Structures are given as structure tokens and as C-alpha cells.
């Protein structure tokens, strides 16, 4: 008999928690429990899994807040072994209360790396989602769609950010790992995978024009740019389609800038200089007048 559970890929900490508690109350060690993902490939050697039965009078597990937060985070990771890792940490933390603070421990080191990847994925999604207007506005509210490809199951985590940031419009964010939809009152999450739609609007051209105008060919730092915006995000951003050509044209633009002769300042420059000079002279004239009058 094999003990364990088959879990959906989107299983959250709140859904995993009672199952882990059940295993712990049954006094089943981590090596006795098998955690399978529903999307994992099945083999001829897979055995049916049975949920363990809790023992009467067993004490529930206790976790410190730091360990609890770490488990919440890693269960948003896409690694299919995350459930087993989380239960192993929970089991060990009962005899090692400060386990989550030991960064050199193999389990904690792996969990911290997963936490870092989830946090980065969350940040990238809030930074690189691009909305395109779709359809005709209804009841005074415009409708927008966006496509993004997260590496991990972070949609529920970013929902509050988008709901607060774009509260005045209806929007839908589609991803291979589900979708978020906001109607002005509630944000609905669906775990159903989405196909990439064809999205475009008039703002794409405006955004590209703005991006080109702010590009400085004399201050190119390709490594820093790729570190902040990896190439995997480029295909879904309207402005990044222009980057290869802008990089290719940069040397010629820098040479043209260096060869350009100085040009006279525009007319308003002289007027501004005169205005500043008058403003600086005014206090001196007032002081001189006061001294002359004997006050």
C-alpha cells in the first residue's frame, strides 16, 4: 500500500496544508508519502495512492512564521517535487524549529532558490504585462486584454496588484497557466490554460515611437538590459521588436552625434537667461535702495 495524493498543478498552500496535516497526524514520515502532480506522466509502475488515517490524540504540527512563509512561496513554484519538499521541511521543522533560518541546509537552500525564482517571476509579470484595447467600451468602461507567459503559478499572487493598478478599466490577462479577469468589482482567477491570442491596437505604434525617442545609442549596456529584461519576454512586448535594429544602428548614430557641429541655442534660451539675470539683480537693487534711504 502506498500513501499519498495526486494534486492539481495549481494546488495552493491552503489546499495542500490540510493534506500535509493529515499525513503528519498519521505519523507518516516524508519518505512514506508520495506527492504526484496530475500533469505528470504516468508509468506502469505507478501504484494507487491511499490517504493516510490520522491517529487519535496526535498533536498537530507547529511552524514558525518564517518557515510558514517559505512554504507558501515554494508551493507557487512549477517544480513538481515542491509538495514533497514542503512536507519534508514541515516534518523536520518539528524537531528543528529554526530550520528555515539555516540557509546552508540542502532542503532550505533549495527552497530559498525556488522562493527567489517565484519572487522574480512575480516582479517580471507586474513589469512586462502589456494591455491592448479590445472591443467597444460599454457603460463607460473600456476593455483590455493582455498575454503573458509566467514560469510559475503566480497569478493569484499578482491579482491584487493589477486590481488596484487598473481599477478603472475591464481587463483580462491570459496565460498558459490560467487567467485573471477584472470587471471593476471582483477579480476572477481561472486555472484553465489559455492559447495565445492575436492582440494589437493603435497604442502599439505610439509606444514604439516613444521607446525609440528615449533610446540613447551612446549609453548601451546590453548585459544590464538582458539581466533586467531576458530575451524570453521580448516576443510579447511591442517595443522590444525594435531593439535589434536600434542596437545595429547605434554605432552609426553615435558617430553622427560626435561629428555634428555645434548649433546656436534656440531663441527662448536667451530670453530665459535674461529672465534669470533680472531675477538675480532684483534683490540687490532692493537692498541698495534701502541703504540709500537710510532705513
TrEMBL record:
It comes from the Bacteria. Pfam families: DUF4130 (PF13566). InterPro entries: DNA_repair_put, DUF4130. Residues 81-239 form the DUF4130 domain. Residues 262-295 are annotated as: Disordered. This is Uracil-DNA glycosylase. It comes from Acetobacter malorum DSM 14337.
